[in-house]
Design goal:
Helix content of chain B: 55-70%
CATH architecture of chain B: Orthogonal Bundle
Number of domains of chain A: 2
Oligomer: heterodimer
Number of domains of chain B: 1
Number of helices of chain A: 14
Structural class of chain A: alpha/beta
Helix content of chain A: 25-40%
CATH superfamily of chain B: ACP-like
Radius of gyration of chain B: 11 Å
Largest sheet of chain A: 11 strands, mixed
Low-confidence stretches of chain A: none
Shape of chain B: globular
Structural class of chain B: mainly alpha
Strand content of chain A: 15-25%
CATH topology of chain B: Non-ribosomal Peptide Synthetase Peptidyl Carrier Protein, Chain A
Number of helices of chain B: 3
Number of strands of chain A: 13
């Protein structure tokens, strides 16, 4: 079967700023941080950390109370994002499933229903109860989001979840891409979601000494990728979804095409669980370029993984320099986690959308809070000022996970 | 609270259904109570009334059948 071109016809996310996707992207272009100081009311262990929440998201209003009640927050965020992407693609929910028997879902989540599990543990160990909710299993299971999405959208093809830490949804998007490109599925709904604001999760990340510190005043500036004074990542909750569609199928139904997805590269460092390696990232970057038929001279922007950890940022720049060589110094790079935080399994999907929006709007968002570049991170063109309006022909989105799993997505702009 | 009162409270909290429409003749299916939600409702009964429902309990079809069943179990296990 000949390879198909893959159109991106739908984008949807739950914005931490409370508005729609154009509002989300406009705020990123302006360099506006969504990081706030989160204080939970969990007794006796309240959480207080810099965090990115989606306070404007009302699951009951968006999904209906009956449906929302059968979901952990990660599935609520994911399903709502899928609904938004579906609507953006001009597709209608509730059409007969037989029309969509080979349309599928590929979803990413690092933690799945961790809030449901934590609630169950509190019931058992803290309150001394001997039973948990009969919904615990279906709330907690990692494939809950993609299962709900398949049911709600009436998609009868594959429904799968990918759990690859911080690369989960990038890998989900890549696997969805392959299914559309091969002709196996004319449409794939893909993306990711996570809601990591569980006490145990936050304490576990703190124990790794990779969490940024901050308070009520300083939290918006807590995440500073590539900066000499960076001090770690900021977790966040979120959900983001894309509709990938056979190009001819999209054209035939008159869909708006935001961008073209052209390549997907993966690799494993195969060396250490948490210490990234430039050589492994180099392989994923080169694989994505080759897969997309792209040369380094074609790439105008890279949305970096850029978590603002001490080890991760310099290694990412080193990997880019290995691949882009003399082209590296002109390569525009930004880490938008500085503003929207790190949504773990949703991060790859959020950043894929940011990358597609940069191609669509021909405008690159900055790395916020980057005042003095760490010397080890020099060598690429860090975007530090708001809204860089330049021609963006093709772009990459990097996602590098604990465990050494690397994923790079490649996109091309379409004439508008 | 009696059994039908608990059913009304549950369906109001969980689905936003007005207590007035939760009448004994109403089929649970029509009210939106599927097999999963029936598990939630039975769990609620066990919790609130301190009774134990056997795993092979025959599923009630209507609000009235459920209320009668729960009343009987409460009486037997009190």
């Amino acid at each position: 079967m000949s390879q198909r071109r893959v159109a991106i016809t739908g984008l949807g996310l739950i914005s931490p700023y409370g508005g729609d996707l154009p509002d989300f992207f406009a705020r990123l272009l302006a360099g506006e941080s969504a990081v706030r100081y989160l204080r939970t009311d969990d007794i006796p262990r309240p959480l207080s950390i810099p965090f990115v929440s989606c306070p404007g998201f009302d699951p009951d209003a968006t999904l209906g109370r009956a449906l929302a009640g059968t979901m952990d927050r990660f599935a609520q965020l994911g399903t709502a994002a899928a609904f938004a992407a579906w609507a953006d693609a001009g597709l209608v929910r509730g059409q007969p499933a037989e029309c969509r028997e080979n349309w599928g879902v590929a979803w990413g989540t690092a933690l799945g229903g961790t809030l449901a599990y934590e609630k169950g543990y509190r019931e058992l160990w803290q309150k001394g109860r001997e039973r948990v909710s009969p919904l615990s299993v279906i709330l907690g299971m990692n494939n809950a989001a993609n299962a709900h999405i398949s049911i709600q959208l009436g998609l009868g093809g594959v429904s799968m979840s990918h759990t690859v830490a911080c690369a989960s949804s990038a890998i989900a998007i890549g696997e969805a891409f392959r299914r559309v490109r091969s002709g196996e599925a004319p449409v794939m709904l893909t993306g990711g979601s996570d809601a990591p604001q569980a006490y145990g999760v936050a304490r576990a990340w703190e124990a790794l000494r990779v969490m940024a510190t901050g308070d009520e005043t300083t939290s918006p500036q807590a995440c500073r990728p590539f900066s000499a004074d960076r001090n770690g990542l900021v977790l966040g909750e979120g959900g983001a979804a894309l509709v990938l569609e056979d190009w001819d199928h999209a054209i035939a139904r008159g869909a708006t095409i935001h961008a073209e997805m052209v390549g997907y590269g993966t690799s494993c460092d195969h060396s250490h669980l948490v210490r990234p390696e430039a050589a492994g990232q180099e392989r994923a970057l080169k694989a994505a370029l080759a897969d997309g038929g792209l040369d380094v001279t074609d790439i105008d922007y890279v949305n970096a993984h850029g978590t603002a950890t001490a080890e991760g940022d310099p290694v990412e720049v080193a990997g880019l320099k290995l691949v882009f060589a003399e082209q590296a110094s002109r390569l525009a790079v930004s880490a938008t986690k500085s503003m929207h935080g790190h949504q773990l399994g949703a991060a790859g999907a959020i950043e894929a959308i940011v990358t597609v929006m940069a191609l669509r709007e021909q405008s690159i968002p900055p790395t916020a809070n980057l005042l003095e570049i760490e010397p080890a991170c020099l060598g690429v063109d860090h975007v530090t000022s708001a809204r860089r309006n330049v021609p963006v022909r093709a772009a990459l989105s990097n996602s590098f996970a604990f465990g050494g799993s690397n994923a790079v997505l490649a996109f091309r702009a379409v004439a508008r | 609270m009696d059994s039908i009162g608990l059913i009304r409270e549950f369906l109001h909290d969980r689905l936003g259904i007005s207590p007035d429409s939760v009448i004994p003749e109403a089929p649970l299916d029509d009210l939106g109570v599927d097999s999963l939600m029936l598990l939630e409702l039975m769990f609620e009964f066990e919790d609130r009334f301190g009774i134990t429902l056997s795993k092979d309990l025959k599923s009630p079809k209507t609000v009235g059948e459920m209320a009668v069943l729960m009343d009987r179990l409460r009486s037997e296990q009190s």
